[in-house]
TrEMBL record:
Signal peptide: none annotated. Its cofactor is FAD. This is Esterase. Belongs to the GMC oxidoreductase family. Keywords: FAD, Flavoprotein, Oxidoreductase. One of its GO terms (molecular function) is oxidoreductase activity. The lineage of its organism: Bacteria, Pseudomonadati, Pseudomonadota, Betaproteobacteria, Nitrosomonadales. PANTHER family: CHOLESTEROL OXIDASE, FAD-DEPENDENT OXIDOREDUCTASE 2 FAD BINDING DOMAIN-CONTAINING PROTEIN.
Length: 341
């Protein structure tokens, strides 16, 4: 498929310069409305476009959607900043959605959200800041973060220690360790992770989960994608991990900035949204356990029975749901079917 893309800048609510990448067929105009894709922490919008024959972006375009990839403040395409989920929820996603509506003329849209793009987008949605979004496919974690025991230990004890030494960690230090703390931590990663020969892959597992690897299953990745990942991870602030530690301890998302527009506790009051959710998770996810999504689905299903859906994919983990070599066969059709409901 021949594609064309354009970068559309937008300004976040606090003045930060962000952007959207609009991807369309070069020959056929979209037959359906816009859909926004929201990446996770310490990556960028490009994470949805692994070097596979078919990506989720291709699949959505073939299904007729007008695809918009959001680079929010956690994107490694921007200078490192000590972002929080609150900032993204209040300042980034509502302004990105508003910009897409302005550009397309549509009043409503759909969304595919992943990991911390998912948690922060969920915060926006629960606060009533995204009334334009009608259907949301959410992967890995949304309202109820549940992590393995080793991850909880790292959040509670390792993060405070590392935060005394550096405001960020960066899996790309495995390729380029420019400071003494980067060199020491890379040596620690090499000492403790032996699952493959890709140092960034090892660093990602050290940073984000408890598995070997944590964010994918090696058998689900092609060699090209496994190598490509070396350039797709960057700085992530310890401040984010501190917020996630509070969320994990509480059992659901909580705010940390005190913004009046956002709830302090996201299950304490009913959600201010009429959107339909489809919750996805990999059975073998070692970043956020499948119970994360199961709990979120149960919460919404209790409020509106048989309206929302839950998909637990037995042979997948975290990011391989989007970049796995067989994801176009195993995952994308289910997501597109959910979007069409």
């Amino acid at each position: 498929m021949s594609l064309k893309e354009r970068m559309v800048p937008f300004t976040a609510g606090d003045g930060m310069a962000l952007n959207l990448i609009n991807v369309r067929s070069a020959t056929q105009p979209p037959k359906q409305g816009p859909i926004i894709l929201v990446h996770g922490a310490g990556v960028r919008a490009n994470i949805f476009r692994a070097p596979e024959k078919e990506t989720i972006v291709n699949a959505l375009i073939e299904a007729g959607y007008d695809v918009w990839l959001e680079n929010w403040r956690a994107s490694i395409d921007f200078p490192a900043n000590t972002w929080t989920l609150d900032q993204a929820a209040l300042y980034d996603h509502p302004y990105a959605v508003r910009k897409i509506c302005e550009e397309t003329g549509y009043k409503t849209m759909k969304a595919i959200i992943h990991c911390q793009g998912s948690t922060s987008f969920m915060m926006s949605t629960m606060a009533g800041l995204l009334p334009q979004v009608t259907t949301i496919v959410a992967n890995a974690v949304t309202l109820h973060p549940v992590v393995p025991a080793w991850s909880a230990f790292k959040l509670n004890f390792v993060v405070p220690l590392v935060n005394m030494l550096t405001p960020y960690v960066n899996p790309h230090w495995g390729v380029e360790a420019s400071t003494w703390i980067a060199k020491i931590m890379t040596a620690l990663v090499k000492l403790t992770h032996h699952e493959c020969n890709n140092i960034v892959c090892k660093w990602v597992s050290f940073t984000y989960g408890s598995g070997f690897p944590a964010l994918w299953r090696h058998e689900n990745l092609s060699e090209n994608t496994h190598e490509w990942l070396k350039e797709e991870f960057g700085n992530v602030p310890l401040r984010f991990f501190q917020q996630m530690a509070r969320c994990v301890h509480k059992g659901n998302l909580v705010s940390v900035e005190g913004f009046p527009e956002l709830p302090s506790d996201y299950v304490a009051t009913p959600p201010k949204t009429e959107a339909r959710f489809s919750f996805f998770c990999g059975e073998k996810n070692r970043c956020f356990l499948p119970e994360s999504q199961e709990k979120s689905w149960a919460y919404f299903n209790k409020l509106q029975p048989n309206f929302h859906t839950f998909h637990r994919l037995p042979e997948y983990s975290h990011l391989d749901i989007f970049m796995g070599k067989n994801a176009a066969r195993d995952v994308f059709p289910i997501m597109i079917e959910e979007l069409s409901k």
